Every structure is written in C-alpha cells, then in structure tokens.
Amino acid sequence: MTVHEAAGPGPAAPPQAQPRQAALGAWIGSALEYYDFFIYGSAAALIFPKVFFDTSDPANATLLSLATFGVAYAARPVGALFLGHLGDRLGRKKIMLSTLVMMGVATFLIGCLPTRDQIGGAAPLLLVLLRVLQGISAAGEQASASSMSLEHAPAHRRGYFSSFTLNGTQAGQLIATLVFIPITQLPDSQLLSWGWRVPFWLSAVVAVVGYFIRRNLRETPAFEQQADAEGVAKLPLVVLFRDHWADVLRVVAGALVASVSTLFTVWALAYATSDSVGLGRTGMLWTGALANVVALGAIPLWARLSDRIGRKPVFLIGAAGSAVMMSLYLWSISTKQFPLVLVVGVFTFGVVYSAANGIWPAFYGEMFPTKVRLSGMAVGTQIGFALSGFAVTYAAHIAGPAGDDWFAVALFGAVLCIPPVITGITARETHRVPSERLGLRPGISPASTTAPRSTPARLEQP
Question: What percent of the chain has pLDDT over 90?
Fold first, then answer.
C-alpha cells in the first residue's frame, strides 16, 4: 500500500529520504551502543574471572563472572517499563539519545574500575552496578530505534528498513570482537592489568559520535500525527496491558530466541577455551567475527524475504533452525576440530539465527499500534531477553563442575526455542497490513480506541 501525504488529519508519508536517514541512524546508533554491550560479554568470558573474582576456584569465578553478564538482562525489564512509557509519551528520538549517553558513560566507567586485588569485594559490586546501568540503557535502545525505522518506512518495505536496527547490533558485536582480538594477544600480565580496559575506554568516543548522529534525526511522522490527532496516552502501560496483553506475551515468548545469541557469544566461548577443550581464544573470537560478517549480509536478505512472503515463515525458519544448529555447534566444539567449529558456527549464528533475529523489529513492532508500540516492544522483548541473558548462568550450572556437559546445554537451548516457535505459529501475519492499521483488530478504526489521552507530547512541559 502507498500512503500519500495529506494536509488533513489522516496519516502522512514522510519524504522519500527519511526512511533511509532513520534506518541509517538506527544502524549506526545500535552498532555503537551494542559495541559497548558486547565487549562486556567477551570480557566476562575471558578476563573478569581473573580480575574481579577469587581465582583460587576458577570454575566458581567463571560462574560468578557470567552471572554479572546476566545482571544487565535482569535490569532490562525495569528499564523497559520506564523508557517504554517515556518513549510513547515524549517520542522515540529522546529515548534514543538518552540510552546512548547512559550506555557510553557506564561502559567507560567499567574500564576505570579497580580490581579485586586493589579494593576487595567492592570491585565486583561496582561492576554489577555499572552492568545494571548498561541493562537499563539497552532496554530502551532496540525498541526506540526499531520504532523509529519502522514508522519512517514505506508500508511495503517495513521489514527491510526496520532490520537495520539489528544489522547495527551485529555490526557492534563484530566491532567489539575485532577490538578484543589484538587485546588478547598481549602478555597476560599486561592484558589483566591495563589491556582489557582499552575497549571500555573507547566507549567515550563511541558515545560522542553516536550522539551527534542521532541528534539530527527527526521524530517519526506516525508519532507526531498520533499526538496531533488524538494526543498521547497518559498511561501507555495501562493501555498496553489492557488491550494488547496477548501480543506482549507473544513477544516475550518470541524473544527467548535470543538465548541462542547469549549461549553462542558467551557460554560457548568459555567452554571452547576451557582446559577441557583447549581451543584458542583468538580462533574462537574470529569465529564470532566471521559469523557477524555473514549476518550483516543475511539479515537484510531475510528481511526482504519477509516483505514478500510474510514475517511468520521467516521467523519460524530462524527459531526452529536455531534449535537444531545450536546443538550441532556445541557438538562441533566438543570434537576439538577448529575448522568444523568455524564452519558450523558461522552457519548457525550468521545465517540461520539471522532469520529470526533480523525480522523481529518488524514482526513484533507490527503487533502494536503507534500509541503503545515502543512500550509493547520494550516490555515484551526485555522480559524475554532477561530470561535469555540468564540462560548463560544456568548453562554454566548444568554443564557440571568441569563445565563440559555440552549436551545438557544443547538440550536446554533447544527447549528455549520452543516458545518462539509457538509465537511464530500463533501470531497474526502483518506484512501487508497498512501502517495506520497495525495493532488494530478487524472492524476497528484508528480513531475509535478509548485509551486515556493527554495533549500532544511536544506541547507538554517536562
């Protein structure tokens, strides 16, 4: 459907250049922000057990370090409730700017932390506090960036343009890996004293660049038209849970597919480089880097396909396929044959997982109307991501004292892919629904909802 710009109260299409600008802003901002987020994952697997925790028990130190990785995911639902509410009242752009600054500051400060040897048990406590700030920031990042690109996009290309958010996330993960590869080549004495800090300090540059890029973005026409025509909801969360609770549950279940990413990037890395397997740190980091390179190409291709055949079949390919391929990947690590690990890992994370990962911004975002879209995406995804984040901690537990029971972890990962499959089966197909009717039931007009309203957001005082 083509939406034409009009002077009246109907929905108006943005200028042709806006979808590209919004997608680019979402891509760059997400890449920069998730660089910060993912360098923590690499450090939690490779560095922090030796820096912030008691090294007399390496297995327990690794378990505690991986638990701090999950702490950010526990904080994300809280951040989603707060930032989602603000994003549906004040606009997408303000949230995109605030999350970037918060992430940059928290990550830079992690690089400045004293170690356990210097201040004792206070060191891991400070680490956890800053990790919580990272989690709150990440809670609003993807939902606001995805809403921005989705609401600027032409109706028939929403999948493609909204996929730039996740493409940027993969780029951020790639950059984080590439930064860590030369760092890990340092002698252990230098790596554990100052070398690990460098990637975190670079976040200051990341935050400044990202802020200036996003500052020039315009608010989405859909949000502005909603505010002008009806006003914004006074309590978006009330509207969300009253009218759209079933779709929130679908998003929570669908977001559990992210457990594939956390198991791949954190637990599998720790397992592969452990004494029981003995694969090199550099080789495993390159596996993740190459998988992300492939994902950069696969995500827009899957997204284009979803614009043609629908969100549901593409999402199901990714969710069901990831359950199978993650098991094969962990098995390949157990063989200790690096070429096999490389091939299976790149195909698992770069190709198969990208089918679900690349199209969820459109798939989830199209379940909700404009007035609660950011809240719906933020709350649903962040609860699911929180559970996925702690999948790493639970995997470390069920892997046994030696941390080498890969089959138990593979089975656990496969079980976590069942709820996303259910989401893919039960959700409505939305790829051909006009943008102004997204989130509405048949027979309901956009103006007929009974949500609590306030004056347009841009006229309100802070």
Answer: 41
